[in-house]
Amino acid sequence: KAGVTQTPRYLIKTRGQQVTLSCSPISGHRSVSWYQQTPGQGLQFLFEYFSETQRNKGNFPGRFSGRQFSNSRSEMNVSTLELGDSALYLCASSPQTGNTEAFFGQGTRLTVV
Amino acid sequence: AQSVTQLDSQVPVFEEAPVELRCNYSSSVSVYLFWYVQYPNQGLQLLLKYLSGSTLVKGINGFEAEFNKSQTSFHLRKPSVHISDTAEYFCAVTPTSGTYKYIFGTGTRLKVLA
Description:
The complex is a heterodimer.
Chain A: E1 5-7, E2 10-13, E3 19-24, E4 31-38, E5 42-50, E6 53-57, E7 64-68, E8 74-78, E9 87-94, E10 103-104, E11 108-112
Parallel strand pairs in A: 2-11
Antiparallel strand pairs in A: 1-3, 3-8, 4-5, 4-9, 5-6, 7-8, 9-10, 9-11
Chain B: E1 2-5, E2 10-14, E3 19-21, E4 24-27, E5 31-38, E6 44-50, E7 56-58, E8 64-68, E9 73-78, E10 87-95, E11 103-104, E12 108-113
Parallel strand pairs in B: 2-12
Antiparallel strand pairs in B: 1-4, 3-9, 5-6, 5-10, 7-8, 8-9, 10-11, 10-12
């Protein structure tokens, strides 16, 4: 079974631009979550989607948004990029029932210059 | 709300020596507990998890952890480490019902010395 796939792996953007990151969950998984990892703040929850609906949202500004498609693939978008948005963005997928395990992708390393 | 505390930010240990990485949590509701490992420029890989039942949980790569409800701890142990165990280790919790949000500790960097 293929794991969680995140694209692209690396991205460099300029302040003020916007960016879209993609995540393909494990086949059959309907829950997709996003996390931001930085040296200063550690791993922080961004949001979680299930069956195309956002079920949970972390404490991030409205510049951070996401969506999920009918095939469970998910995208997250960050508008008006700031230097502080530089981070590793991790996507995790979970089975349809329960939250007994989250499978993580390798992440997208975003650098804002 | 939940919180996770990993008391040691860095743990150096010699190869073939035992190691314990400490994790304490706080939660007003029942939680599941996890340990993940992260190698440089990689995502998180699940080492082991506690859902219910036996408080001693065995995971991959020879790691094990013990859930102690009274002390709200979930310490990770390995009796003999290898150079390849050098990585960052994260303890995490998530409520048993409701949100799928995982709360992570700040991580412990394990460095195995030759």
